[in-house]
Design goal:
With about 375 residues, the chain is of the alpha/beta class. The chain contains 16 helices and 17 strands. The protein folds into two domains: about 280 residues, Alpha-Beta Barrel (TIM Barrel), CATH 3.20.20; about 90 residues, no CATH class. It has a five-stranded parallel sheet.
C-alpha cells in the first residue's frame, strides 16, 4: 500500500506560521495546494459549464454521493464512464460520503452500527448506506478522492451524542478502509480520506485524530466544523485538530468558502477546503469584491456603469457594469446567476493564487492582515 499513500509533496512552509504550499498527485492530474474546490452537488457546479471551470483553471471539484445515488444512480454513472465520462469534466472529482446529509436530513434517517437507513427526500423511498456500499458507490463514480461514511453532530449536541457518533464513525472507517483496499486491488485508482470527528470536545478530537492518523491513509479530513458554532470556536477547534494530524498528509476542512474562513484555514496549515457559498451567494445577487461583499440588488447601483470590482480581471468585470448586472438580477434572468457565479469563483481562485505566492515568499500572515483590512473596509 505504501506506493499509494505518498500522494502529497510539501513545496514550501511559510517562515511566519503554519501555512504551506504543496501538490497532491491524483489520477486526473496534480492539484496545487492550498486549494479551494467548487461544489458540484449533482456533477455540475451550478450555473457553470465545465469550460468555464477549466478557463478559471480549477483542478478539482466536488460531487455529492447522496444526491447522485438517488438520481440518476451509480449504475448509470458507471455505465457513462464514471463522473468524468458522464459530465465530461476530465479533471479531478472529490465525492463526499453522504454523511453530511445524514446530519442535515436527520428527520429522514436512522443510524445503526450497520449503517444509515434513510428516506429519500425526492420520492420517500427507503435506502441503506453502509461504509462498504458507500465506498462501492464512489468507485462506480470513479472518484479521485472519496470520503468515508461518518456521523456528524451539531454544535449544540451534548457529549453523549458526540461520543456515540465518534465510536460509530471510527468503526465505520475500519470497514471503509478494508473495502477501499479491496477495490484498489481490483484496479480502482482513487484514494480514501477518513474524517476526524469529536464535536467540540478536545479529548474526543484528540482521540479521533490519533486513531485516524494511525491508519496511514493518503489524506485526512477534519469534519464536524462549520455546523453553526461561533467563529472563534471554529477557529479554535480547527487549529487544535490540525496540530494533532501528521504533517506529511494533505489536510481538508469541509464546508468553508469565504475569504475570512479560507485565510483562517490556511493559517492553521489546512490544504483543502470547499463550500457551496460562492455560487449560492451569486444566485442571490451577492458578489465578492476586494472591499467585501457587494449586494447587486441595492438601488445605489442603478446608474453605476463601473465594474463589480475594479481590481478584478475576470471577463465579467471586464465586460459588464453594476447597472447591467443589477438589471439582470432584478429581472431574474438566468444570465445573472451565470455571470455572478463565474465572478465569485474567479475571485476565490485569484485569492488562492495570491495566498500561494505569499506563502512561498514567507509573507502569508502579512498578506492575510492586509487582505482582511481592505475586505472589511466596505464601500
Amino acid at each position: 500500500m505504501s506506493e499509494i499513500l505518498n500522494i502529497f509533496d510539501i513545496k514550501h512552509k511559510s517562515a511566519d506560521g503554519k501555512a504551506r504550499t504543496g501538490v497532491i498527485h491524483l489520477p486526473h492530474g496534480d492539484v496545487q495546494t492550498p486549494v479551494f474546490m467548487p461544489v458540484g452537488t449533482n456533477a455540475t457546479v451550478k450555473a457553470m459549464p465545465k469550460d468555464f471551470l477549466e478557463e478559471i483553471d480549477f483542478e478539482i471539484i466536488l460531487a455529492n454521493t447522496y444526491h447522485l445515488f438517488l438520481r440518476p444512480g451509480p449504475d448509470l454513472i458507471e455505465k457513462a464512464g464514471g463522473l468524468h465520462g458522464f459530465s465530461k469534466w476530465n479533471r479531478n472529482f472529490l465525492t463526499d460520503s453522504g454523511g453530511f446529509q445524514v446530519f442535515s436530513l436527520s428527520k429522514l434517517r436512522k443510524i445503526t452500527e450497520q449503517g444509515v437507513k434513510f428516506q429519500s427526500n425526492i420520492d420517500g423511498s427507503y435506502h441503506m448506506f453502509t461504509p462498504e456500499n458507500v465506498v462501492q458507490t464512489q468507485v462506480k463514480f470513479n472518484s479521485d478522492i472519496q470520503m468515508q461514511l461518518d456521523v456528524c453532530t451539531g454544535w449544540d449536541e451534548g457529549r453523549k451524542a458526540a461520543e456515540n457518533a465518534l465510536k460509530v464513525t471510527s468503526d465505520w472507517l475500519l470497514r471503509a478502509k478494508k473495502e477501499w483496499k479491496n477495490q484498489r486491488e481490483n484496479g480502482y485508482k482513487g484514494i480514501l480520506f477518513p474524517i476526524v470527528q469529536g464535536n467540540f470536545f478536545e479529548d474526543l478530537r484528540k482521540q479521533s485524530a490519533e486513531f485516524v492518523s494511525s491508519l496511514d491513509t493518503p489524506g485526512i479530513a477534519i469534519g464536524g466544523l462549520s455546523v453553526g458554532e461561533p467563529h472563534e470556536e471554529f477557529t479554535k477547534f480547527m487549529n487544535y485538530t490540525s496540530e494533532l494530524l501528521p504533517e506529511n498528509k494533505p489536510k481538508y476542512v469541509m464546508g468553508i468558502g469565504t475569504p475570512e474562513y479560507i485565510l483562517d484555514a490556511v493559517s492553521a496549515g489546512i490544504d483543502m477546503f470547499d463550500c457551496v457559498l460562492p455560487t449560492r451567494n451569486a444566485r442571490n445577487g451577492s458578489y465578492f469584491t476586494r472591499r467585501g461583499m457587494l449586494s447587486i440588488k441595492q438601488e445605489r447601483w442603478i446608474s453605476d456603469f463601473g465594474p463589480i470590482d475594479p481590481e478584478c480581471n475576470c471577463k465579467v468585470c471586464r465586460t459588464y457594469s453594476r447597472s447591467y448586472l443589477r438589471h439582470l438580477f432584478k429581472e431574474q434572468e438566468i444570465l445573472s446567476s451565470i455571470l455572478a457565479s463565474y465572478h465569485n469563483l474567479y475571485f476565490l481562485k485569484e485569492i488562492i493564487k495570491e495566498i500561494r505566492i505569499a506563502i512561498n515568499e514567507d509573507m502569508f500572515e502579512q498578506y492575510r492582515k492586509d487582505f482582511l483590512e481592505k475586505f472589511n473596509s466596505g464601500f
